[in-house]
Design brief:
This protein is of the alpha/beta class. It has 13 helices and eleven strands. It has helices at 14-18, 25-40, 81-93, 111-124, 135-145, 149-159, 174-180, 187-199, 216-233, 259-272, 283-286, 288-293, 325-334, and strands at 43-47, 49-52, 98-101, 129-132, 163-164, 203-210, 236-243, 278-279, 301-304, 338-342, 348-351. The chain has a four-stranded mixed β-sheet with strand order 9-1-10-11, covered by helices on one side. Strands 5-6-7-8 form a four-stranded parallel β-sheet. Strands 2-3-4 form a three-stranded parallel β-sheet, with helices on one face. It is globular and about 50 Å long.
Amino acid sequence: MANQSMDNQEFLDPNKALKLYDLDIFTLGKMADSIRQDYFGKKVFFNSNRHINPTNECADVCKFCGFSAHRKNPNAYTMNQEEILRIARDSIEAGALELHIVGAHNPKLNLEWYLELFKTLKANFPQIHIKALTAAEVNYLSVLSGKSYEEVLKLMAQSGVDSMPGGGAEIFDEKIRAFVCKGKVDSTNWLKIHKIWHSLGKKSNATMLFGHIESREHRIDHLLRLYYAQEDSGGFNAFIPLVYQKENNFLNVKNFPSGQEILKTIAIARILLPNIPHIKAYWATLGLNLAMVAQEFGADDIDGTIQREAIQSASGSKSANGILKDELIAQIKNAGFTPVERDSLYNEIRLY
């Protein structure tokens, strides 16, 4: 990767950063694409992964969520470990190199249950990369078990978790959090959990859920907090701007962001986060077409095959059945980029 010198210094002023939104889409895209090409040229990264969501029974009721079992989703479920093991075996036989395991805050699935799951998966599939548990889940399991964040995270690492996903960040502004996800881990502790994980020599991702009731100012604040957190601990592999999905939840957002607003936000993320290597245009929330366009606006990653996905698709995304690897490669090539299959830590496996 190219030198990550902090050439974004002028934009560390929130007011100056906010003015990036006033630029026309092409100027902003050119700025972001220049950074992206300095880092990665025309490469677009993807991986072969499988999402496993063990349960949708949740103690929290986040207003943006269509996945958890509540009035909008009466179909409650909780998998047993044998079922998860079977899914993992089938997924690995189908080519998955990563198991992405996140779910709900289910009081029936305690810390010991998850630790046993991770140990069993590693014992059966020692080669698989386990990316598991958002900071929100870590916080919930910490409260449930009475153990500190440090204790929970060390036990996760010892049990086979290789990296952490970036979910649960939503928007860091606490007033917005109080409305959209009251009761979930607060922003300070979300950042603290990732800092501790990084101190263990582990990597993680970071996200931002946007396009609901937050303002542009809230997005800038979120991005700058991530910038300073990365300066401190250096453990974020990728930033993933997640577009709010508007079906089957309680926010009832009327003004959904335009394609230009989404692309501007992705471009600004690339400009403000030169110290986080990768910007992921997560096709499960953007749709495949916009995710490919985003590669011209600072993004360099599109996520992966997914195989199955339950959280975003519960709110309207078309990601439930994943995407075939050959189709993903073809889409990247057709857009004029070089497909690069990667592992979960961004080591290159194969260029196509």
